[in-house]
Amino acid sequence: MRSTNQRWILVIVLMFGAMPLSAIPGTDPGGGIVTPRVSNTELPPAIEGCDYECPLSIVGGTPPYRVNIQPGSEVPNGIELKQDFAGNWSLEGVAAPGTSSPLFIYLFNFLVIDSAGTPGNVTTYFFDVYDNIVFPSTSITVIEGTHYSPAAGLISASVDGGISLAFGDPVGGLPAGMAVIPAALVGTPAPGTSAGSPYTAHLTIHDVSWHANTLEKEITIQVLAPLALENAMAPACEEGVPYEFQLEASGGTAPYTFSTALLPPGLTLGADGVISGTPTCSAMEEWQIYTPPYFCGLWITDSSDPPASDYCPFLFEGIVGSILSIGTTSLPVAFEAAQYDTPLSALGVVAETVWHADGLPQGVNVARIGGLWKIIGTPVLGSAGSYQVMLTLEEYDAFGSHETSATFTLIVEGETSMTGVHVLTNHLPAAQEGESYPLVILEAAGGSGSYSFDVSGLPEGLEMGAAAGGIGTHWIDGRPESGSAGEYSVTITVEDATDSSLTASVTLALVVSPASLAPSLPPETNNLGGALLAGGAAAGCSVGDEYGHAALLVLLGLMGVFARLRICIRHAEFFLSSNAGRNTA
Asked: N or C: which end of the chain has fewer CB within 10 A?
């Protein structure tokens, strides 16, 4: 590069000189040119980074010639003086990066010597190197309704040296909604422009620097139809059931990719537009705050270069499922040292469940026995009081889990407060017409420990059974008759066997479903008999056959003997402790 002073000297020379500058050539007496020299009117400018070739025209003297660039010349890097095999001279090459500048002009001093060795006069030319105008593409694809601008890497022009450009008015048609601004083609193709595609326009790009460089370009504009979703509503999905749905798009350039952040739990959207997965058991609960059909807008991106994206409305028809809830409404009273057994009811169950409890009295737990979740155990002596029990019902499947909780009050009565008798049976499992009913043992507490029971309100086909003599173990079993489907209020009354003034009763609901339908309660709540006799079943007794019932009666008789023996022992302990106190006194 020249120094600043040298550059300004050259600019001043340009201002006061002609182009080309040359000494007056020698002439012969007849006026002919006898001194050889370069006779080009001017040297066209080079463009930085582009191929350049300018043949030199030589007159005078006798060929062949030898041309030299004289000292004092300023030659841009990449441009050289060359001679071909025919003896013709030219300037050729590629102007190197950085050779263009609005404040610098190059200088060529040519000296020609002919075949006789006669030197000519030096001919001087000024020479420019222009910045390169970059116009990367002459064919573009746009999408109707999608904004197009240079910021998105689309069609635009630039100058390596950072000099401003301007597009001239286009000759030919541009799509409605598009226009030229300085150095760029921008806009949003208007609706309907895809029908008139393709469009052809001729552009003139001006270098507005002092070089006044220009570039002519013809561009073709292809306008594609707007991106659209062809199937904008997906059918409903169902909790726990595998689901698959293929989205279809149009417009732009296929293939397409899809994305969204909002789908029912358990479902995913692949880039190929396939919605798949299995809705979790919590899908309905999580989406119950929305109103179906659910809005799940998504993005569609096409394969144009560069790609175009558009946000499309998308609806999900709904979710088939149920809301998980705790069906148990209260907890029956418990008594110290008396067996407590109450089933837990779950509603809206579609998957596996597990129960948790916090705050139960000592000796009582939550357990699953024979497929039935229940609160079971024997409150220990001294545990009388009021307990706030937090019950949590958790539902889970292979894809997720969720839970719901509720708090109940459980009253434990003290042993000394059991002055009368109490019915401990607090639940009757659902029944079905024509099916064997799970055996329900009637239980009571208080009094002498020996009771008689009476049951009213049973459907046809079910009855109460009792041990020999009607004192001791009582139960409900049988097979509901055809046509007995419905809801029944069953009253169980207990009377102390030794003191008929001690009585108690409780009324329980019993649901009988038609023979063609499953019981109305979930499967795990329909096996109360199996739950109560889990130990006996493990020992080989089945409550679903006659042999099992016979074995059960034997077992129940033994249970009655042990119960009476336990009462006798407790009375004996009380008597001994009382006498011991008197003797001590």
From this structure: C
